[in-house]
Design goal:
The complex is a heterodimer of chains A (515) and B (349). By secondary structure, chain A is α/β, with parallel strands linked by helices. Chain A is built from 19 helices and 22 strands. Chain B has a domain of 227 residues. Helix content of chain B is 73%, strand content 2%. Chain B has a two-stranded antiparallel sheet. The chains are: A alpha/beta (515), B mainly alpha (349). Chains A and B meet through helix 11, helix 12 and strand 17 of A and helix 8 and helix 9 of B.
Chain lengths: 515, 349
């Protein structure tokens, strides 16, 4: 390496090792970031990306290894030192005060503590200049609580820039954005590197990595396993490096939809806090068809899932199963009518952490034979059922008596999958079925859903990942503020067109046409 | 500092912290005994001797453990379902009142019919008392900690009214006490001539029954599911509200058996000092037992032993019996910490 090149290194991690108990989160990881460069840290969930960045930012202390920023070694475990050295981090989960204005949030913590006078005019001018320079459109006087997720992220980035960050770390920044917002973010990042900033971009979405990064570092099980120039690699290679094996996504064969099984007719539900309820939603789920529901989270997906899952009933409108409106509608009735429900949050609603696999496997059917009779549990039958699920759904675990909290997300999801698919459901409600799973598990879950479709199940797939929706769905609806778009047949709409609907446009025109 | 869960705790990790907690409790109690002017070794020796040192001491400890097993079970059942029943004291008195209502001559039945009726009626009364807070919780979201706790005071005042008024013993020389139970309404002694009544046997049976309910029945499964993750339970179709109500009925009934057993087995009549806080001590018992019904029996014996031992120690050397309360409070706090240490590792970050 020549001297000129060496001078450009702004950030250097050397031999970082971090263990949590028996788990090695980072194993001797070294990397260097150059000025004006975007590197992507690519890896599956649990590969150690976030841990590494938390060490860099001083939130964790490494067991071994050093962090150097602009040639200066950072003292371990002090986020303040990292901030002062010019490192800015935008977390996956934002750290903003909802009740304060954008300007207050940006300035918060950057002002001197004992200064009597706060220079708000100066701060406002600086924020405006930064927003202009990096194309971060946001109203400085808006309350953060009223902003969209994309806007909040801009506030986070502004916050980092306001503190003179020269190195930006973005942890899964696109997970919550619409395709347009993602484009805007990338636009901002290109501005940033053009002006000499450097960016570490953490992701597991391959096409994003390909479009924004210069260099990709692949982490697997805490180890840095490969490094590639983006210009000289392809998504396929990255995927197999990430997983450590060749991956093939299940093929989606065309299908012929059958009869309507579940029908929602002009259903509305009340708003819940800031989350909009459903507004006049009409939806048809047919046998042998996957209906995809695209949309930015918090636009009524949870309400629709709750409705079909039996957790709430329509305020107006009707829900029909095989043309009939059920007299009682509870989770129990939903399960009994053959609806398999894959919940959005497998930790909070899908499983009971301290229950064993057996206890979790029978959570929805413990009242039925053979698992219980006249109030007495039949644990032998329950164990048998759990063993069956473990075997046929490839749940990696020590045994059915293991507490489910000890399983990885993917194995937990496989158990849930087995629990709901084993009875042979007619309807499958898959709410974010692959969120947080690694590629192997994602393909497994998708394969199972496609199998169920071939068997004639009606499937509703709710996801924030547009790629997933577009790949699997026979019909796509977009949900925005509780309203449902018309159904678009497979291939009739591109991501950009769907993005327009996701942003809430298109619905108005439709009502105008109707009137 | 951060806590990191331990996936598979080793044998040492499960056993050492609780043992250390017990040792620390003894050390702290010794220091306090010294402050109170006693020789710590002698004080501790006397407590142990007073608890288990003689046949009389041992029977006294078993007698004292009896109501604690019932209230401990009541709390363990409720807490397992995250129903925070702090009202075992009121439920205990409700059971006692029922025993007096039926056992002072109102029913002239033979013992084999009268005693089960009294026990059942007592359970019903305790169940009803906890039913109201449970319904307020499930229907209106009223915090049951507040309602059950405050109802203890209301019910104790109600008992006071009964003992000064409608239930006052006309032969009681003006003392606020109920008439004595008739002979058929008294729980017999387990062995003739020894001061241990069948209430203790009933408590052991109750512990076994609760254990069977917890591990073998759908209700036990539902109660555990609701307690550990109500949201997941509701999602899976478990009727959370109904389970909480059933839990309340069981818990209130168990606490009421303590009152029945004390009146019918030990005291023979109802006075306002029937329970020196058995309802509250039941919380300590249940927590020390980690809400395990069989553990409740052991924990109740431990707690009763300390109370009884401290009483006798206090008579001998003049160190106040409050030492018992402090020892139990220390034991509870340290045990909670110890349990944390068996399941988590503390990391300095």
């Amino acid at each position: 390496m020549t001297g000129a090149e060496a001078a450009q290194v702004v950030l250097r991690l050397d031999g970082i090792t971090k263990t949590f108990g028996a788990l090695v989160a980072n194993d001797n990881v070294s990397l260097a970031l150059e000025k004006g460069e975007v590197i992507a840290l690519l890896g599956e969930n649990g590969a150690g990306k976030t841990t590494l960045m938390n060490i860099l930012f001083g939130q964790y202390t490494a067991d071994a290894g050093t962090v150097e920023v602009f040639g200066q070694r950072l003292p371990p475990g002090t986020p303040r030192a990292a901030l002062e050295a010019g490192v800015g981090m935008v977390h996956q989960h934002f750290t903003l005060a909802d009740n304060l204005s954008v300007l207050d949030n940006i300035v918060l913590g950057a002002e001197r503590l004992w200064s009597a006078r706060s220079d708000r005019r100066g701060a406002r001018a600086r924020v405006a200049a930064l927003a202009e320079r990096f194309r971060l459109r946001v109203d400085p006087d808006a309350r953060v609580g009223a902003l969209t997720v994309g806007e909040r992220q801009r506030v986070e980035i502004l916050k980092a820039l306001y503190r003179d960050a020269r190195i930006l770390i973005l942890d899964e920044p696109t997970a919550v954005l619409t395709p347009q917002e993602t484009d805007d973010l990338f636009d901002t990042l290109r501005q940033a590197i053009a002006q000499g900033l450097s960016v570490v971009f953490i992701s597991h979405k391959l096409h994003e990595v390909m479009s924004i990064a210069h260099r990709v570092l692949i982490l697997r099980h805490g180890k840095l396993v490969a490094e590639r120039q983006v210009a000289r690699t392809n998504p396929r290679e990255l995927a197999s490096l990430m997983v450590g094996a060749e991956v093939t996504a299940p093929a989606v064969a065309p299908s012929e939809p059958g009869a309507s099984i579940l029908h929602l007719d002009a259903v509305s539900t009340p708003d819940r806090g800031s989350a909009p309820g459903l507004r006049d939603v009409t939806l048809d789920l047919r046998a042998g068809q996957i209906v995809g529901l695209a949309g930015v989270s918090g636009n009524g997906q949870a309400e629709l899932a709750a409705l079909i899952g039996g957790l709430c009933v329509p305020e107006t409108g009707t829900l029909r199963l095989d043309g009939e409106s059920p007299s009682r509608w509870t989770p129990h009735e939903a399960v009994q009518s053959g609806i398999a429900r894959i919940p959005e949050d497998r930790h909070k609603t899908g499983t009971i952490a301290d229950f064993t696999l057996t206890e979790n496997a029978i959570l929805e059917c413990y009242r039925d034979g053979p698992f219980s009779a006249r109030g007495w549990m039949n644990w032998r039958a329950a164990d048998r059922f759990a063993r069956g699920v473990i075997d046929s759904y490839d749940v990696r675990c020590p045994g059915p008596g293991t507490r489910i909290r000890l399983l990885s997300g993917g194995n937990m999801q496989k158990l849930i999958l087995g629990r709901v698919l084993e009875p042979g459901p007619r309807i499958i409600l898959a709410n974010q079925p692959v969120r947080g799973l690694d590629i192997g598990a994602v393909n497994y879950v998708h394969g199972r859903l496609l199998e169920a479709r071939a068997r004639g199940a009606a499937i509703l797939l709710i996801s924030e990942d547009l790629d997933e929706i577009m790949r699997l769905s026979d019909v796509i609806h977009v949900i925005s503020e509780g309203r449902l778009s018309p159904g678009f047949a497979r291939g009739s709409m591109g991501a950009a067109e769907l993005g327009v609907w996701m942003a809430g446009h298109g619905f108005d025109e439709e009502t105008r046409h109707a009137s | 500092m951060r806590l990191e869960p331990i996936a598979n705790p080793s044998m040492a990790r499960t056993l050492v912290p609780p043992a250390a907690a017990l040792v620390a409790t003894v050390v702290i109690a010794s220091l306090l005994a010294m402050v109170a002017g006693g020789n710590p070794f002698r004080v501790l020796g006397l407590i142990i001797e007073g608890a288990v040192g003689s046949r009389f001491a041992l029977l006294e400890t078993l007698n004292r453990a009896t109501p604690l097993i019932f209230t401990g079970l009541a709390v363990a059942v409720a807490f397992r379902a995250k129903l925070w029943n702090i009202g075992a004291e009121a439920q205990l008195y409700a059971g006692a009142v029922m025993a007096v209502v039926l056992g002072t001559g109102a029913l002239a039945w033979p013992a084999f019919a009268l005693l089960p009726t009294m026990a059942a009626a007592a359970m019903l009364a305790g169940a009803v008392i906890l039913l109201v807070p449970a319904l307020l919780k499930t229907r209106l979201g009223v915090d049951e900690v507040v309602t059950t706790l405050l109802f203890n005071f209301i019910f104790l005042l109600f008992v006071s009214y009964l003992l000064e008024g409608p239930m006052k013993d006309p032969m009681g020389m003006g003392w606020p006490k109920s008439p004595r139970l008739i002979a058929e309404a008294r729980l017999p002694r387990i062995v003739d001539g020894l001061r241990l009544h069948w209430g203790f046997g009933l408590a052991l049976i109750a512990a076994g029954v609760v254990w069977v309910i917890n591990t073998r029945t759908t209700l036990g499964y539902e109660m555990r599911a609701v307690g550990q993750n109500a949201e997941a339970a509701r999602f899976a179709g478990i009727p959370v509200g109904r389970v909480i109500v059933k839990t309340a009925l069981l818990s209130g009934g168990l606490a009421a058996l303590a009152g029945f057993s004390e009146v019918s087995g030990l005291k023979g009549s109802l006075t306002l000092d029937l329970s020196p806080g058995f309802g509250y001590s039941g919380i300590i018992v249940a927590m020390l037992a980690l809400l395990n019904p069989l553990g409740v029996v052991a924990a109740a014996l431990f707690v009763a032993g300390i109370f009884v031992g401290a009483d006798s120690m206090s008579r001998a050397v003049g160190v106040p019996t409050y030492l018992a309360d402090i020892m139990l409070a220390t034991a509870l706090l340290l045990m909670v910490l110890a349990i944390l240490l068996t399941r988590f590792r503390i990391l300095r970050e």
